[in-house]
Specification:
Elements: E1 12-13, E2 19-20, H1 29-42, H2 59-77, H3 82-96, H4 103-115, H5 120-133, H6 141-151, H7 153-162, H8 168-188, H9 190-195, H10 203-208, H11 213-217, H12 223-243, H13 252-274, H14 288-300
Length: 305
């Protein structure tokens, strides 16, 4: 993956050792949003961060949120730097103080001000990225879901804030969609994560299905592994299916996007099942036809489980 840092001036270290970004004065607000937009459009996942179903006026704000997370992910995943994550949190503090400096925060500070977004979801994402640097794995499914509460669920809360929703019920349903989508991506990327030295399967689940980390390292879709995957896919499917009810409790256009996200996660799970859980040989992924079907169903207000 191309680093998002490739298109911005690097953070330079000052005399105290803290990384310093280029001055905010060098980039207007419109330019800062455009910068975030280019970053979002260059990095493709199995779903878009701001789908074509989302109101056009909201897309720049989604791009600013995405750019914030994309940089932090790069610091954790590519550079494995806690110091860079600390610097990024310092920039977040400056943005909340009304003194943004980095282009991403010039845009994000405006989004935060316009929609009165609290700091906690942004801080939670950074805590998750720090745990990625010192990855220890997870003992139970509850531990894994605790990770998702900080690595995925805050994004859903941020989207709800953009549309003016702050109540617990909508946040709970959003959490189910975000956590389910995170799990779907983990089970899609088992082989990729093994290359990074990461196993997201709870150790208790490995023991339940008579597997070990050493067995996973052999990259064989044994009967035990397929049974484990069936179990984990079922957990993710339940979360996505139940969380999709959020679409009827929000603005119609946001509801379409909720179905696009939840439907995308469910489509990933079907792709995993379609290859017989042979995720070691090739990464199950969605094609253009899959995206067209997702968009059509979301537009009609339906979802395929």
């Amino acid at each position: 993956m191309r680093s998002p840092l490739a298109d911005a001036q690097p953070l330079e270290a000052n005399r105290t050792g803290r990384a310093e970004p280029p001055p905010a004065a060098a980039m207007s607000l419109d330019e800062a949003y455009a910068f975030c937009g280019r970053l979002a459009h260059r990095h493709y996942e199995n779903f878009t961060i701001a789908s074509w179903l989302m109101p056009r006026a909201m897309r720049p704000h989604m791009h600013a949120i995405y750019a914030y997370a994309r940089y932090a992910d790069d610091f954790a995943d590519e550079q494995r730097s806690l110091a860079r994550l600390d610097d990024w949190e310092h920039e977040l503090d400056l943005a909340y103080a009304g003194r943004p400096r980095h282009p991403v925060f010039v845009a994000l500070a405006d989004t935060i001000r316009r929609f009165d977004i609290p700091r906690e979801p942004f801080a939670a994402l950074l805590r998750a990225f720090r745990s990625d640097v010192n990855f220890q794995g997870f003992e139970t499914i509850e531990d894994l879901m605790g990770y998702a509460r900080e690595s995925a669920n805050p994004v859903g809360h941020l989207v709800l804030y953009l549309f003016g929703y702050r109540d617990a019920r909508r946040q709970e349903l959003s959490d189910q969609v975000c956590s389910g989508l995170q799990l779907a991506n983990f089970w899609q990327d088992v082989a990729i994560d093994l290359d990074k030295g990461r196993i997201y399967f709870p150790r208790a689940d490995l023991r339940r299905f008579n597997l070990s980390e050493q067995a996973l390292a052999r990259r064989e879709a044994t009967a035990e592994f397929c049974a484990l995957m069936r179990h984990e896919v079922a957990v993710a499917r339940r979360l996505l299916s139940e969380g999709a009810a959020l679409h009827s409790l929000v603005d119609r256009r946001l509801g379409h996007d909720v179905l696009m996200f939840a439907g995308g996660g469910l489509a990933i799970l079907r792709a995993i099942e379609a290859v017989g859980y042979q995720v070691f040989q090739r990464r199950p992924r969605l094609g253009k036809l899959d995206y067209l079907k997702l968009g059509w169903r979301a537009w009609r207000g339906t979802i395929e489980v």
